[in-house]
Design brief:
The protein is an alpha/beta fold. It contains 15 helices and five strands. Helices cover 56% and strands 7% of the residues. Helix 1 links the parallel strand 1 and strand 2. The radius of gyration is 23 Å and the shape is elongated. The structure holds fe (ii) ion (2 copies). The site of one fe (ii) ion has 4 residues, from loops.
């Protein structure tokens, strides 16, 4: 069982945050801290997020923020501060030697606090991404290189240097995962690679194509890294599908297919707890086999019930599966894959996204 991340709650009245704690408790282990138990008591334990209550005493919350920020992991902690409404109206009064990532006025609803909390997490991650700008572009470069080798393998069934190709996939996966600043993605990928090498290579291809689709629809670098990570982890639920089903060289029986189908739901559940601040990652895993007309699994969702990231991942996943070489089938050419997918556009796959994807494939990958 993976351990939950820790959220520190600094308040002299932690009971004020019962609603927030109840919701966030599904994702985080919540540790209430006060003057008697401080962040120093948790020096050995990583803290990923904190809610700091600056009411009624702002000196209390300032001390709490300073203690948090001075920890070795201090820059990585997403801090939400609860402040008196007048503090928000008077930004001059906000001292910033250990700033929160987001502030919200006291007395707001649980939903408003929750929204502010996720904003604090998003801002923290943007800052980390900005400071790791180098590794983000290195990841994109590597992914492109690895992808051309992958193309080579899927087209010709071989590459000139398989050992180097393997090493490159591993390196690319590591870089994409590092770009998000989260070690747990790398741990999950390592587990996927050990469990089923094909799923690992497939996940990397999906991640690369997702990133490229993101570029084609004009998303920011931050969003493209999110797509890359969602792509890398979309099939993580296959870790819980027995290897004899995953690697079966012939057609699956009805029961085996039912077992295979569980990977979507299982993956979503696994990722929900791990990526609370970026729910899209879990959604992509849970929805990448859903179809607009309700014929997909696990929930038979319809059109707008499917999140955009789920719709994107569905397109990329099908294309990727068709163009991959498996023990039991030759890889299909890009053109043939697109020809199979074209009739699905509008009915099963989102037309607009498919068209963008199709023209990107034609430009980039056409022989
Ligand atoms: Fe899948
Ligand atoms: Fe997949």
């Amino acid at each position: 069982m993976t351990q939950k991340e820790t959220l520190a709650l600094f308040s002299i009245r932690p009971d004020k945050f019962a609603g927030l704690s109840m919701v966030l408790g599904r994702t985080f282990q919540i540790v209430p801290l006060s003057e008697s138990a401080t962040a120093d008591d948790f020096a050995d334990q990583p803290i990923s997020a904190a809610v700091v209550d600056g009411t009624p005493y702002r000196t209390f919350s300032r001390e709490a923020r300073r203690t948090l920020r001075s920890r070795p992991d201090g820059d990585r902690i997403a801090i939400l501060e609860i402040v008196d409404p007048e503090v928000l109206n008077d930004p001059e009064s906000v001292e910033d030697d250990a700033p929160a990532n987001q502030m919200v006025a006291s007395g707001r609803s649980t939903a408003a606090m929750l929204a502010a909390f996720w904003q604090a997490c998003a801002r923290r991650e943007e800052q980390n991404w900005a400071s790791e700008h180098e590794s983000v572009s290195a990841a994109a470069r590597q992914a492109k290189q690895a992808f051309s080798i992958l193309e080579d393998i899927t087209r010709r069934g071989t590459t000139d240097d398989p050992a180097a190709a393997r090493e490159m996939f591993r390196e690319t996966a590591r870089l994409i995962a590092r770009a998000s600043g989260l070690r747990k993605s790398q741990d999950l990928l390592r587990a996927i690679e050990t469990h089923h090498a094909y799923t690992f290579a497939h996940s990397l291809k999906v991640a690369t194509l997702m990133t490229e689709l993101g570029r084609a629809i004009g998303l920011t670098e931050t969003d493209r890294v999110l797509l890359a990570e969602a792509g890398l982890l979309h099939d993580v639920g296959k870790l819980m599908v027995p290897i004899d089903v995953l690697a079966k060289p012939s057609r699956l029986t009805f029961d085996e297919f039912e077992t295979m189908k569980t990977h979507a739901q299982l993956g979503e559940e696994l990722l929900q707890g791990l990526y609370g601040s970026r729910p899209e990652i879990a959604i992509a895993a849970g929805q990448h086999h859903e179809k607009l007309d309700g014929s997909g699994y696990p929930n038979g969702l319809l059109k707008t019930q499917i999140h955009e990231i789920g719709r994107s991942c569905a397109i990329v996943d099908i294309y990727s599966a068709l163009t991959d070489r498996r023990d039991y089938k030759d890889p299909m050419s890009s053109e043939d894959a697109l020809a199979i997918m074209r009739p699905m556009a509008g009915a099963k796959l989102e037309e607009r996204l498919f068209e963008v994807f199709e023209s990107w494939v034609r430009e980039e990958l056409a022989e």
